[in-house]
Amino acid sequence: MTHLLDPLIAFVSDHAGLAYLTLFMAALLEAVPIVGSVVPGTTIILALSALIPGGELTLPWMLAAAILGAVLGDGTAFWVGHRQQREILTAWPFSNYPRLVAQSEAFFHRFGTLAIFFARFVAPIRAVVPITAGALDIPPARFYAVNIPAIVLWACAHVLPGVFAVQLLHRYGGIPHHSHIAKSTWILAAVAGTIVVWLALHLWRKRREAQLTTSPAD
């Protein structure tokens, strides 16, 4: 089954610039409020990281694209919230997702400014916290002092696992370096893992909502 990804790997190898642009846009769109909760940016980054050991893509450019996209996305969302203040949290499209907005605000009540750091690793809160930080009038210097280190760590945590996994498969799995099997295996694992995590979170949220709905009657 892994050989089905060979054309994709070859295409990325021949169009590395397009791959970096795709990664940049994925990281940026993940930070767009509401929209970011359905953009598979994490999957794209994890999958493309498998192409670094073979030289199709390079580590510095991968990290730069992910970091710049996330900084621009989070920063834009923050300044929109900073400009509109709390009114933005009750306007469309946020008015259709009151629970998500409430979760974002609860993050700040629980962790304070560190909510900006933690939220970068928690979907779908990641797509709402930056604009919430602006709406709650967090000072810009404090926002970026927490947000940028979180983004750098987030980018490394998404890019480096694929690099190490493919290298280990080559070294200890007996897979030749010229073969695409290791890369394809990691890409499929990244996609499958994302689906499993998404399903688990979806079921957990459904169960949580059901509990909250029935609890007043108890």
Detail the topology: elements first, then pairings.
Layout: H1 6-14, H2 16-29, H3 41-48, H4 59-84, H5 98-111, H6 114-119, H7 129-135, H8 140-172, H9 181-214
Instruction: Report the β-strand fraction as a percent range.
Output: under 5%
- pLDDT averaged residue by residue: 79
Question: Helix fraction?
Answer: 55-70%
Broad shape: globular
Radius of gyration: 19 Å
Number of helices: 9
Number of β-strand runs: 0
> SSE order, as H and E?
HHHHHHHHH
Number of structural units classed as domains: 1
Terminal CA distance reads: 51 Å
Largest sheet: none
Uncertain residue ranges: none
Q: Kindly name the structural category.
A: mainly alpha
Keywords summarizing the entry:
0% strand, mainly alpha, 218 residues
Q: Can you tell me about this structure?
A:
It is built from nine helices and no strands. It has 218 residues and is mainly alpha-helical. The chain has one domain. Helix 4 (59-84) runs parallel beside helix 7 (129-135) and helix 8 crosses helix 9 (181-214). The longest helix is centred in the last third of the chain and has 34 residues, at 181-214.
Summarize this structure briefly.
By secondary structure, the chain is mostly helical. Helix content is 69%, strand content 0%. The chain is globular, with a radius of gyration of 19 Å.
